[in-house]
Structure prediction request, 235 residues.
Amino acid sequence: MSDDGRAAATESGDESADATDVPVDDLLSGLGDDPSTVASLVGDLYRGEMDRAATWRARLDQTTNWGVVVAVAILTWVFSNPDNPHYVLLIGMFATATFLLVEAHRFREYDVWRTRVRALQETVFYALFADDSSGDGDWEETMREMLAEPAYTMSFWQAVAHRLRRVYLGLGALLLVSWIVRVTVYQPGRPLADAASIPGVSGTLIFAVVVACYALAVVVALLPLAYESGTTFRG
Prediction:
């Protein structure tokens, strides 16, 4: 590269570095005097947050769909032949619990973007369409805090409880009833503890573990957990 080219590159690099060193106050100077610019920026922010919320909502639906498909497939296979082992239903319960935990994590992510959208709707857009001034007039501060320090709006166990109540408690109950029917009606004359056993594990232990897991699920779903916010959000 020639000396002139190096000089031009150096000068260009210095200009880029200088551009990034411009204070934020200088970049935003005069912004408050141009309502059209503010409206455009708020509109872009709202569309971006809506897109993120819709994306995470779709991810929630994917997890739920997979949970339902796996449960239906297992039920169909187990009851298609009396010789098929009942413990496949236990595997289905474990798979459903796994989907629940994954979906709870996704629900926390979704709720971050949903909360931002609702904040914009309840402050900026409410003020535009309301007949009175009862809305939040300090919406700039509200959005500044959300953007400066992104945080989860609920704890992980709150998310688990929410998804249990909405979807997974019913799905798990279906698997539980199907398993009980499979080890009783489909194996008449056998002791219940013997019918529920799997190779190397007694039926009594299986029953105890299943009952304990479902009791825990019911407690988590119904327990009024304290509302926790401020946990660092990691996108």
